[in-house]
Amino acid sequence: MEILKTHAVHGGTLRYLKHGSAMTGTPMTLSVFVPPGAGPFPVLIWLSGLTCTEDNFTTKAGAYGAAADHGVIIVAPDTSPRGEGVADDPAYDLGQGAGFYVDATQAPWAPHFRMESYVVEELIGLVDAEFPTTKARAISGHSMGGHGALTLALRHPHLFRSVSAFAPIASPTRCPWGEKAFSAYLGDDRDVWAEHDAARLIENGLGGGCYDDILIDQGDADPFLKEQLKPELLAAAAEAAGQRVTLRMQPGYDHSYFFMASFIADHVAFHAARLNG
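RE: above sequence
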């Protein structure tokens, strides 16, 4: 991987990197924070939301002090393939910056929009090869990335010891963002959509028993709460399936990175306890 920039932070090292991706057929960018010390360290993968790049979490979340204290590597990839020849849409919620962490099957998206395979089949291996990891890993994310964290953890439980999310799109088959993206990327078969819907995956028992708890923080002043995010659907599915979910409704908090910066240390500690256990 090509190192684009390096910064010292909280005694550790933050690198911005670029590499050619076999999965997306494009260059992909990411940031990796390595805490102080020789390691090896467990890994937390962070998936960002609509319109974001790897830079939003890296510069705004304030996660690296907690990561240094707990000895956790944090990896933040871009949210989609990008570049000339990559399909796009003028809307913010489709195309570049809106990969939804699925492998598209429909034209014109299928050649490059393979974000599920990118994360689980390529990114994990690259990080383990390039950095001093224990090969124990967790996953978290925000909004579209919260959807991605939940669904990838439920679909690939052998890869992750723990999962959490901030304001996730809890059931994309039942909200405008998800319906639009899934129609474009996956076609019209709603049974296929359900394979990438966290609430429906929990309802169907996928990943069940693999996680002792799933931590979710949601601001009650989030403007997307009722129409797009719908955490109550995830909570109901978890209760019916016997999957523990800790849903913390945070009064007064919105959808911004100010919300994440306020509670990110709790999530790092949540994962560290399971990664180091």
